[in-house]
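QA checklist item 7 of 12: single-chain prediction sanity check.
[x] sequence parsed
[x] length recorded as 42
[x] structure emitted
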Amino acid sequence: MEQKAVRFSMLAAICQVLECQPGDLLEHAPDPNDVRDTSENA
């Protein structure tokens, strides 16, 4: 099962335990199957 969402409260709890920031755990990876037009002129 692929997880698609994380509650902010869960992320905050994980970061508190690990003494880190959310950016230390997460990175944005665009979905190559996303067909939305993201151009500035759309």
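[x] summary fact logged: DSSP finds two helices and no strands in the chain.
[ ] second reviewer sign-off
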